[in-house]
Every structure is written in C-alpha cells, then in structure tokens.
Design brief:
By secondary structure, this protein is an alpha/beta fold. It contains 15 helices and 6 strands. It has a 6-stranded parallel β-sheet, sandwiched between helices. Helix 4 packs across helix 5, helix 6 packs across helix 7 and helix 6 packs across helix 9. It starts with 6 loop residues before the first helix and ends with a helix.
C-alpha cells in the first residue's frame, strides 16, 4: 500500500523525525563517559596543567607519550617526577624495559584498561601528551589489527636491509601517496606498517585512517590543545635541552648503551637518545649532538602542531596569554570549557 502525504503533513513528519533523532543523540551523549585530553607541542606546559586539573576534578592522568613508558629513561623524556605528580595517580609511565617494543596498538589496549579502572574508582581520566596518533586511537576507538609477524613483514625487512629507508619510502609513495605524505620518511616503522597494510589487504592505509578518523567518539570529551607563538616554543625547547644536559642526559645514555641498547631498539630512536648515541658512536662531537637535538625537537614540535590542527572539536589555549593571569588557566578551563 502506498500512502501519499500532503506537503504540510510531510513537513510535520520530518520535524518529528528530527526531534526523535535529537532526543536519541542527547540520550547517547548523556550515557557517554567523561574524558579530558590535554595535548600540544613539547615544552608548552601540558604536564603541569594535567596535574593541577586532576587535583581539582578528581582525575587520574594517562600519559600519551611514546617514550615515558620506559624505565631508566627519565631525563631525555622529561618524565614527570613523583614530587611533580603531587599525589595524582599516573598511568603508562615506567611500565616497560627499554628492550621492549611499544606501539600505538599496545598503547590503546593499556590506556583503555587504565580508563576502566579510573571510571570504576569514580574518577575522570585525563590523557596528557603530545603523541597525537595515540590520543586519536583512544578517542575514536580506532581499530587496529594485532601486529603479528608475517611473511609480508619479513619481505619488507629484507627490502629495507638491501635498499635502505629512502627506497622503502618511495615504494610507499608509489602505492599510497597520500599515506606517504602524512609520514616522515625516517619513520621506518610507520612506513613499513602502511606498506604491510596495503600488501595484506589491497587497500590504502590513508583511506583506512580517513575512515577511522570519521568515526564518532564514544566519549563525552573535552580536547584541549595548548600552544603559544613558535618563537616561545623554540626558546623553551632550547632551554629544556640545556637543562637535560646539565641534569645528566649524557650519563643516562651512556648507562643505557652499557646495558647493550643501540639504535636498533625502539626506545633508543627517541629524541635525546638517538642524538647522544650518535655522539657516543663517534658520528659527531657533543656540541653537534646538542645542536641536532635542539633542531630535531623544534621540527618535531612543528609536526605536532600540524597534527593537532587536523583534529576536530579541539579547544586551543595559549597558556602564556595575559588574560589568564588573574584567575589562572586551570580556573578558566573549569569555568568556561569543562
């Protein structure tokens, strides 16, 4: 049977349908659990804000830093100290040996496990860090296949050994130019993962990532990105590197090297470690190592800002803005954002 509606009846029907969908969406939002994210480039003040905010709202902090998971790597990662935590519970810090691998897949798994415990305790999880892909993985529940060794990966490892990282990157560009454009050519791990995904599924990793990024978040989230003018960030980076050297970064890397760690380990590819390791391996003098570290950290901060600019539903704040001088940034966030 075909029912023909008048134009007026049709408009009423559409309005009712929209109201029902709105009610459903609002109900879904009410059922979503609260999640706060504090992100931004390195050296902009994320850690201090996360602790202060956690103290005010009953929060626990989950580190979204790809290097602070490693024990014995404290200075080069600018790892938060027990005193700086001020009694706030922190997660995903000092959980691995530097000999162990770490990936976004493992981060998502462990972060979600930590969040379950935080919610059970009646607290609010605060994800804090500058690794945007890690944050995105949790926020939008991005699907990752288990990273098991495969014949494809073995073939790619053989290609890398025989032809080098640049050739591997060019190979990705030939099958997924969009995916290659989003990855630095020296990030061999991500280049290989994108190639492996294409060779295994026949699909482009860039298309898969786009599909995943369009998913709605299962959380009622507040996504804060801290940033300030570029020159201030660069000055803070240079000062932080100088402070790291004064605090004993050289000795920290020497101790790691003495344990048998070298540039083949994931942990030793991090900023601060690969540059000092290069000095210890005789590639350049110490002054040059420090110069390279400052330069590469500045480049990293620039890439971080580029990443976060692509993210949706973010609130950008300059922690050095004079308008926060009287009440403070934390109070401003509590009164106006959360």
């Amino acid at each position: 049977m075909i029912v023909i509606l008048s134009e007026a009846t049709g408009r009423i029907f559409i309005c009712l349908a929209r109201q029902i969908l709105q009610i459903k969406d609002n109900t879904t939002m009410c059922n979503r659990k609260k999640l706060i994210i504090i992100a931004g480039p390195t050296a902009v003040g994320k850690t201090a804000l996360s602790v202060e905010l956690a103290k005010r709202i009953g929060g626990e902090v989950i580190s979204a830093d790809s290097m602070q998971v490693y024990r014995g790597m404290d200075i080069g990662t600018a790892k938060i100290t027990p005193g700086e935590m001020q009694g706030v519970r922190h997660h995903l810090i000092d959980i691995l040996s530097p000999f162990e691998p770490w990936s976004v897949h493992e981060f998502k798994k462990r972060a979600c496990e930590a969040m379950e415990g935080i919610y059970e305790r009646g607290n609010v999880p605060i994800i804090c860090g500058g690794t945007g892909f890690y944050i995105q993985a949790v926020l939008y529940d991005i699907d990752f296949t288990e990273e098991e060794p495969s014949k494809v990966r073995e073939e790619l490892n053989g290609f890398l050994a025989g032809n080098g990282a640049q050739a591997l990157y060019e190979r990705l560009k030939s099958v997924d130019p969009e995916g290659a454009a989003a990855i630095h050519q020296n990030n061999v791990k991500r280049v290989m993962r994108a190639l492996e995904y294409h060779m295994t599924t026949g699909e482009k990793m860039s298309e898969h990532n786009l599909e995943q990024s369009q998913k709605k978040s299962p959380y009622d989230f507040t996504y804060i990105v801290l940033n300030t003018d570029r020159e201030r960030v660069y000055e803070r980076i240079d000062r932080r590197v100088d402070m790291m050297m004064e605090a004993g970064l050289l000795d920290e890397v020497k101790a790691l090297k003495a344990q048998g760690l070298d540039s083949s380990y994931v942990s030793m590819k991090g900023l601060g470690y690969k540059e000092i390791l290069g000095y210890l391996d005789g590639e350049y003098d110490l002054d040059e190592a420090v110069r390279i570290l400052k330069r590469d950290t500045r480049h990293f901060a620039k890439r971080q800002v580029t990443w976060f600019k692509r993210e949706k539903d973010t609130v950008w704040l300059d922690p050095f803005d004079e308008k926060y001088k009287d009440e403070g940034l934390t109070k401003y966030i509590l009164h106006n954002i959360i």
